[in-house]
Amino acid sequence: MDQPLLFYPIKSKFLCQDHTWTAAAEQKYQTEVQRSRQGHCLKAMGSKKKEIALQVNVSTQELWEEMLSSKGLTVVDVYQGWCGPCKPVVSLFQKMRVEVGPDLLHFASAEADCLDVLERYRGKCEPTFLFYAGGELVAVVRGANAPLLEKTIREQLEAEKRVLAEGRERRVIKDEALSDEDECFSHEKNNGDDEDLVSSEKACTLAIIKPDAVVHGKTDEIIMKIQEAGFDILTNEERTMTEAEMRLFYQHRAGEDTFEKLVHHMCSGPSHLLILARTEGTEDVVTAWRTLMGPCDPHVARREQPDSLRAQYGTEMPFNAVHGSWDSEDARRELALLFPGFQFSDQIPESAPLAKLLLQSYFALAPGNHRKM
To answer: What is any one GO biological process for this UniProt entry (predicted)?
Structure first.
């Protein structure tokens, strides 16, 4: 980007009435020159800030080593190619960058499959954020948990400032969660084929933020409420559904009068597809998600559960903002259809063929024979 031009003030403006150049005129002129230089510097700094990207994409070993040599704290979003970088945290990173500045806080993203150093993070469904300072790993956050991320960024940034200013010893860690006995997410092969599968030992369910909520810009608000309610977002993918997908997805409602309207709505624009989990020892994830959503009809939700998502963000049927699986069996069916690479811990590696089988069964069945859930 070209630097802003520096314009000096015209000397004739400062001449006395008799067109002489006095010491007072010289002082006024130098003061104006100084102001012009200060304005030029501010414009130049603004131009440089515009050039700084929020997240640097690290795709080679050379870039990785360059990133590790950065002064201050670097937060790396390690992502899988099939789902991309974690979008829900971008607004948090933007806020932190504005608040802290770019000198000591850096953000980067790296696809696990592109770098050998990230090999053990491959095939993991939930987002992973690695915190580096002085070329060493100092913290790890799993899941798109914005409050925890912000807390960790602030704590680690303050710790790094003390290291740089006072020479304190940097606290370095190892990512113990990657040990074989503790690893919750594994990268497997499907019967020796090359297709990657993602598995989770946690109970999971599907959540969809529907097109009506997305088009009204409510996605980030809903995601924040999901996280505040204690859910782990293992993945978040923005996708525009096809008619074939939605006719299969809602086949159990094919006999209803609103079926065509529902299918049309779900294909009308982008949705956000989320895989949700909860920590062990808490309420069943499917039940907990249905409770947070509230009754299907937004009017009923506002009357019976005014704090529910459908009460707050839904308008009328079928524009009720969010979808959730009815039960654990329904969750398996829906995840197999929309995320063929997702695998529950107790499943054999057949989730992708299961989705194909579901599609075949849909076109083989007459609408009147579809099961009602």
So the answer is: CTP biosynthetic process
Together in a domain, 271 and 150:
no
Is 323 annotated in the active site?
yes
Contact 110, 79 (CB under 8 A): yes
Helix (H) / strand (E) containing 180? none
User: Containing domain of residue 65, as a range?
Assistant: 55-178
User: What would the DSSP string read from start to end of 289-348?
Assistant: HHHHH--SSHHHHHHH-TTSHHHHH--BTTB-SEEE-SSHHHHHHHHHHH-TTEEETTS-
The packing angle between helices 146-166 and 90-100, to 10°, is 30
Contact 1, 47 (CB under 8 A): yes
Exactly one of 187, 272, 323, 370 is catalytic; name it. Answer: 323
Backbone angles phi, psi at 199, to 5 degrees: -125, 160
Q: Is residue 187 part of a domain?
A: no
Q: Both 59 and 161 in a single domain?
A: yes
Does 151 lie in the same domain as 63? yes
